[in-house]
Design a protein that fits this description.
about 400 residues; about 20% strand; alpha+beta; 13 strands; 10-stranded antiparallel β-sheet; 434 Repressor (Amino-terminal Domain); globular; 3-stranded antiparallel β-sheet; 17 helices
Length: about 400
């Protein structure tokens, strides 16, 4: 059974502003027992740590149906692509003849090939100079256009990114945007939705804590006339971090943006699109590359996003009688239950540990349920699940590296 590093428990307690005695009382154990967990004399299992967090108001599992996640921007550079026709056919699953050529100065290139919002940058004089560098750029709409091509070929983002990273060892992702859309629950349940206006208030009341983020900003307004109408609102946008940094958050009221864009009422926007807020994470340079590597190495994209949010910030709702910050219940429903994820700024060899931890943290309970159901119904669903998995080329390469590096 996986044991938690005692330092993790200590740092977690300190982040809540509690003494050892106070946290022990809150989670309902003897202070001496708690101290033994924190000093390492007694092992603390992952399941036990999760039960401690639950007692403090953190959820073990967020409502996975409440948030829809998708890639909303991608920029990836390849140092040497000599044959664009083959690149388009093999990786973008479309014909190069469908692209139109334009002159450009963007990204220091001289030419861009466009197929709608799927863009490929290169150089006019690459034959003379031998510079075959190419950058693929997908805006939000470009991501949706690529998804159509992937679906037609029975592929997904993981297949797409894995093949690119596996086949182009000199490639690097320089920007990745992940968008998490909060589902609209209906007019009768709007009081359950998270309000960004509350988040602004919490920042001022110091009920939001940050690990590395040092600056933030927010905008939002509307018409002064007819101030009682929600239709006059332009919606709130909150920015955490710097646009020049490698990690930047933008949370905004997507429902208002859609209403303005489609020239419909707010009520129609919610009914048609079903989106309340959008929580957007913008990764650049090394962090973008690290996020993609986590994803193609088996970590669900939503877990990558939630893990990064949990590592960088936490939202609370007042304090209890011991002075401990109480986790905000609405925020926990959206982003709770995920292990905080720090994206490394320095490349390091892949290890199987994180994939195993993710399986234990997010999948083990479901597998246990299937195992017990098999016993009751005399079925082999668990075996069927295990046998349905396949090793792609990247997984085989990872196993090869693990075999060569692992010492018995």
């Amino acid at each position: 059974m996986t044991k938690i590093n005692p330092l993790l428990l200590k740092n977690f307690r300190k982040s809540l502003g509690l003494s050892q005695k106070e946290i022990a009382k809150t989670i309902g154990i003897n202070p001496r027992t708690y101290r033994s967990y924190e000093n390492g004399s007694r092992g603390l299992s992952l399941d036990k740590f999760s039960s401690f967090k639950e007692a403090l108001g953190f959820v073990r599992d967020a409502d996975r149906d409440l948030v829809k996640v998708h890639i909303d921007y991608l920029r990836m550079t390849f140092m040497s692509v000599r044959d664009l026709e083959a690149f388009c056919a093999n990786y973008l699953h479309c014909q190069f003849s469908e692209f139109r050529e334009e002159e450009t100065r963007l990204l220091s290139y001289s030419r861009v090939w466009k197929r709608g919002n799927i863009w490929l940058f290169d150089f006019f004089d690459k034959v003379q100079t031998g510079n075959n560098q190419v950058t693929l750029q997908l805006s939000g709409q470009g991501c949706r256009e690529l998804e159509l091509l992937l679906v037609e070929n029975e592929l997904d983002w993981s297949n797409f990114l894995s093949s690119l990273c596996n086949d182009f060892s000199d490639s690097h992702v320089t920007r990745l945007d992940i968008a998490l859309d909060e589902k609209y629950l209906g007019p009768e349940r709007e009081d359950e939705q998270f309000l960004l206006s509350d988040l602004i208030s919490k920042v001022y009341k110091e009920e939001v804590t940050f690990k590395y983020i040092r600056n933030w900003n927010h905008i939002g307004g509307g018409q002064l006339k007819n101030t009682d109408s929600q239709e006059s609102s332009q919606g709130i946008s909150i920015y955490f971090g710097s646009r020049q940094s490698n990690l930047y958050f933008n949370f905004y009221e997507k429902r208002y943006e859609l209403a303005r864009k489609e020239q419909i009422s707010l009520e129609e926007s919610l009914e048609i699109f079903g989106t309340w807020n959008r929580y957007e994470l913008r990764f650049a340079q090394e962090k973008a590359q690290s996020a993609v590597e986590e994803y193609i190495n088996g970590i669900d994209l939503a877990e990558v996003a939630r893990g990064v949010i949990n590592h960088e910030m936490q939202v609370y709702d007042g304090t209890n009688r011991y002075g401990q910050f109480k986790p905000d219940a609405k925020w926990q429903r959206l982003f709770g239950g995920s292990e905080p994820l720090k994206l490394s700024m320095q490349p390091k060899p892949y290890t199987i540990d994180r994939t195993v931890r993710w399986l234990m943290y997010q999948v083990s309970n479901s597998l246990k349920l299937v195992e017990e159901a098999d016993k009751l119904m005399d079925t082999d669903y668990l075996k069927m699940i295990q046998e349905s998995g396949e090793l792609n080329d990247r997984a085989k390469a990872i196993l090869k590296d693990l075999k060569s590096n692992h010492k018995k």
